[in-house]
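Q: How do we represent a protein-ligand complex in a form that can be generated token by token?
A: Start from the inputs.
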Amino acid sequence: MPGPEQHKAAITQGTLVRKARSLLAYKPADVSPQRRVQRHYTMRLWSVRHARFLEWLYARFADMFLTLHPVWKAVGYGRAERPVKFVEKRVKGLMFDCRMCGQCILSSTGMSCPMNCPKQLRNGPCGGVRANGSCEVEPDMPCVWVKAWEGAQRMRDQNAICNIQKPVDQSLRETSAWLRVTAATAAEREKASEAQ
Ligand code: SF4
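Then emit the structure tokens for the protein with iron/sulfur cluster bound:
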């Protein structure tokens, strides 16, 4: 028979959390935690299914942003960062569950954000994808790289997914990828016109 001390040792943090949860008065109506999570994926999966359309849309949007380069320059890219980031975070958060890594590679990953991978892998899936295509860490979640492959097949450059991605530069987290890409493209364009 285990003594009282051994019983005490068997109480884990998980047991305490489960006990506290059962005492909560609030229960979301008709929604299991799993279904809440699945609902959260709906928009993400829609984006992958419409990767081609979003690719087209983003190209128009990037052109428009580049046209506004003189405005960003006049205001100061640094000063524009805050409001642009505010919008970018919400729009991409809704569409892709964006984690604001600041180095967006959606155009190479079939519009499936790799930062949603629990291991944050940027170059394809780990070896643990389940037989049904779900993540090994979060079994309710479709593997972001399985989805990335599906989305990539719908995009113009289907081979872009094979590009080797650099490791994430953590210093760019929570910064605007839109502004960074615009500034880089504008600088390249200016350099090219100077060289002529
Ligand atoms: S790759 Fe980075 S910037 Fe692009 S959606 Fe994912 S977290 Fe956001």
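Residues 1 and 23 are 30 Å apart (CA to CA). Residues 33-195 form one domain.
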